[in-house]
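As the next step, I selected for study one protein, both as residues and as discrete backbone shape codes, as given directly below:
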Amino acid sequence: MEYHNPVLLKETVDGLNIKPDGVYVDVTFGGGGHSKEILRRLGVNGKLFGFDQDEDAWVNALTDERFILIQENFRYIKRFLRFHGIKQVDGVLADLGVSSHQFDVPERGFSTRFDADLDMRMSKRNELDAFKVINEYDDINLKRIFSDYGELKIAPVLARTIIEAREYKLISTTEELKSVLQRFLPEQFKNKVLAQIYQAIRIEVNQEMDVLKEFLEQSLEILKPEGRLSVISYHSLEDRLVKRFMKNGMFEGEPERDFFGNFSVPFTLIGKLIVPSEEEIKINNRARSAKLRIAEKK
């Protein structure tokens, strides 16, 4: 079984506008699909750094003198590139979200298809897991994650139901969680609502929104002028942050105007939003929600 089938492979790497002797970063190494394509286009003096916090991905490390795999969360991109003597790069690629491998390994707890311990950690070194979120978070914080990260209008009753249930018995597995929330999972909407619930918990466990913000801000710092940022997102929360940052260089509000009333923004948008073709979605169903945005630093 392939570890991860890279989405929008050609389009994402094309977006980096690879220079043969450039320095590039693939912050979501996974199965190495995007990294292999970058290396294929690099010359002998080019350099590629990969990041992945998931221990399972490290077995895919590529044997290539031009490649270094950094076994850390990409929220630390600037720190670890500096450690390797790199202050600026020509391009950064990110394929956000959960890998095919993480979805397909039942014990990781990411998939609604399997019964597993409540985990959902992208790195097993993280202290916070789904069990702690479900069994230790108070009403306010459970409501917050289901509302903010799952975009669920029923967040208050979901939170209350979980808190009432765990007073009798701790909720330890994904099937136990489904059982507790069964009355909110009507058959015709079951998969959609479950996906939103899982997404909310997973984002909280892995601090995905904070990590994404930190990564985007640092990417702007480390990119050279005319350096490219190529980012694939899979849900509206991620895509909104990426879109706003590429457009304005900030996540909220609008940039300040100069004396002439013009905005000063750090990026030039490259092309329009790119989504997978029908052919790619047929081959890889998980590509269906992918959105690729590309920007160039001014």
